[in-house]
Amino acid sequence: MNPHHTDVHTLAAAYALHALDPAERVAFSDHLPHCAVCRQEVAEFEATAARLAAATARTPPAAMKTRTLTAIDGIRQLPPPLPATAPAKRLATMLRRKAVPVALAAGLAAAASFAGLAALQHQEGQESAQRARQAEQQLASVTAVLAAPDARATHGRATNGALTTVVASKRQNRAVFTATGLPTPAPGRTYQLWLDIDGTMHPAGFIHANGTVLLDGDPADAGAIGLTLEPSSGSPQPTSTPLLLMTLAA
């Protein structure tokens, strides 16, 4: 396969996530040394994937290993794989060419689903089911932003050392915030997010620990994302010096 010159630029995300077939990977590898834009995009996608993976990582319950080993004997072996049909191959190629990390969204979904499944196995009743539905809705919204064709990632570091990533989509008119290495706030305090619109800070939700959250509000007109420490109930305006004020990618 010899991708057209105008098409090879769309392979940056798939290359960073090792989702290209061998011919595409060779073609993109040959192109990469000569294209500063693609090198930057690959670096950003790799950094985003690493931070989202770290933010969603969870330690499974100790009993899960025993249950899994016990259940193995009762699981049917899968049939041998069959060659993919032509339409299936075309679909796979089309998905790989998306300019945003669809595989990254799928990995985030898998990590969150695994954690959710482990929790549900230990909880019962309407309350846990409601929490599961809310988590599923949140995950769907986050995935939609990550999979948007116009998704753009911006990376930063807060003054407290936390690494941050914002993935924003103008088409979705939504943004996702991820933090790793976020120190535990003092009792009665929490981290609040802000949208900086023409110099005015608008509340955009909370992030209480390492993880990924969907920002509240309309990010279309925001020039930057802010992060401050606020009372646990939140504040209408920042009451402390911003730990982070990160300009969004155009």
Q: How would you describe this structure to a colleague?
A:
By secondary structure, the protein is α+β, with helices and mostly antiparallel strands. It has helices spanning 5-8, 12-16, 22-31, 36-56, 62-71, 86-96, 102-120, 126-146, and strands at 152-157, 163-169, 174-180, 189-197, 200-207, 211-214, 224-231, 244-247. The chain has 2 domains: 5-146, no CATH class; 152-247, Immunoglobulin-like (Sandwich). It contains 8 helices and 8 strands; from the N terminus they run ααααααααββββββββ. The chain has a 4-stranded antiparallel beta sheet with strand order 1-2-3-6, covered by helices on one side. A 4-stranded antiparallel beta sheet has the order 5-4-7-8, with no helix packed on it. Helix 4 packs parallel to helix 7 (102-120) and helix 7 runs antiparallel to helix 8 (126-146). The longest helix is centred in the first third of the chain and has 21 residues, at 36-56. The model is unreliable at 1-6 and 94-103 (pLDDT under 50).
Give the fraction of residues assigned to helices.
40-55%
Question: Strands of the biggest beta sheet: in what spatial order?
Answer: 1-2-3-6
Strand content: 15-25%
Number of strands: 8
What is the structural class?
alpha+beta
* Tally of structural domains: 2
Unreliable sequence segments = 1-6, 94-103
Q: State the distance separating the first and last CA atoms.
A: 33 Å
**Number of helical elements:** 8
What would the average pLDDT be, to the nearest integer? 75
Shape: globular
The biggest beta sheet, please?
A: 4 strands, antiparallel
The helix/strand series, from N terminus to C terminus, equals: HHHHHHHHEEEEEEEE
Q: What does the radius of gyration come to?
A: 21 Å
